[in-house]
């Protein structure tokens, strides 16, 4: 029987989550973030651990191990935002636990893990899947900025915070750094600079002034990662290519050279028009002046108008790529060999700028 997530998040006691994760079994560790480890677990519809382990509703249980005021604040922000925000491109909050000094969060289980795990590993994501993920993530941000009851700035938009379900639907997770957007006459929110190097907008890093357009900049960086299969910061790249944005900027929207950005592992299997348009979108998002960056809803529209959008269904099936064959592009000519690069999983290429 397929079990559904209850509409209201449940308050768990620590022992329930210990049983749900089979005592935080090492084999069920899904990943390790700055907040703490994330384990796979199972619960019944009633919220209690299933009698038979490994049955019921699969969940992801995140344990806070960054004690202190900052850790608690992030835990609280995450629970607060996720319980009030509901959209198909945001991860669902199943529940939380606050018992003594223990702080845990229970999410819906996302079968394919994070976009980061897919983009920079040996398995190659097909073009259509990449665009579908970019679109889903853009819709999630557009909801936060423009559709939620109170606008929300996400502040930590990056590949590791975009999770994928079994069908590669993208959902944003990690609301620990999210902030309410400016209200009334305010143009920005003043904050301590928090986020991740390589993704944070330069004006935010310099001034601490946070706007929706800071998220738009980060979206531009992730879009570049999706197009190129390169990390925002990657010391394993050649000198001068460590910073993805600085390296890619000269090629963005340039119809003769944009292909240099596109992941060589796609072996030319991408829509030429679509790829060029995507580099134009990235260029708009990465504009120095935040006011000149588009709104997320405009980006959603641009992504939806890309060629072959109708082929996005079943995109995880590589064979579906043949549908865009009419637009497939393989660079030719004297400069045709896109620069080669190595991808290293060890180098995460990201450093928190948390202060
Ligand atoms: N709901 C979930 N379903 C499945 N896997 C998840 C889920 N939430 C997190 N994970 C896995 O756990 C990993 C760690 O997640 P977490 O958000 O704690 O850290 P991070 O995003 O890698 O780093 P940071 O702390 O800088 O945000 C993710 O990369 C992902 O692989
Ligand atoms: Mg995260």
UniProtKB/TrEMBL annotation:
Q: Does the keyword Cell membrane apply?
A: yes
> Cellular component GO terms, alphabetically?
plasma membrane
User: What task does this protein carry out?
Assistant: May be involved in plant defense signaling.
What the entry lists under SUPFAM superfamilies is as follows: Protein kinase-like (PK-like) (SSF56112)
Compositional bias ranges of the Basic and acidic residues kind = 311-324
Which top EC class is given?
transferase
Where do the Protein kinase domain residues begin and end? 24-306
Instruction: Tell me which PROSITE patterns the record gives.
Output: PROTEIN_KINASE_DOM, PROTEIN_KINASE_ST
What EC number(s) would the UniProt record show?
A: 2.7.11.1
Family from the record? Belongs to the protein kinase superfamily. Ser/Thr protein kinase family.
Q: Where is the composition biased (Polar residues)?
A: 329-346
User: Which keywords does this Swiss-Prot/TrEMBL entry list?
Assistant: ATP-binding, Cell membrane, Kinase, Membrane, Nucleotide-binding, Serine/threonine-protein kinase, Transferase
Matches recorded under CDD domains = STKc_IRAK (cd14066)
User: What InterPro entries has UniProt attached to this entry?
Assistant: Kinase-like_dom_sf (IPR011009), Plant_Ser_Thr_Prot_Kinase (IPR050823), Prot_kinase_dom (IPR000719), Ser-Thr/Tyr_kinase_cat_dom (IPR001245), Ser/Thr_kinase_AS (IPR008271)
GO molecular function list: ATP binding; protein serine/threonine kinase activity
Q: Where is this region: Disordered?
A: 311-355
- What name goes with this protein? non-specific serine/threonine protein kinase
PANTHER family in UniProt:
OS01G0588500 PROTEIN-RELATED
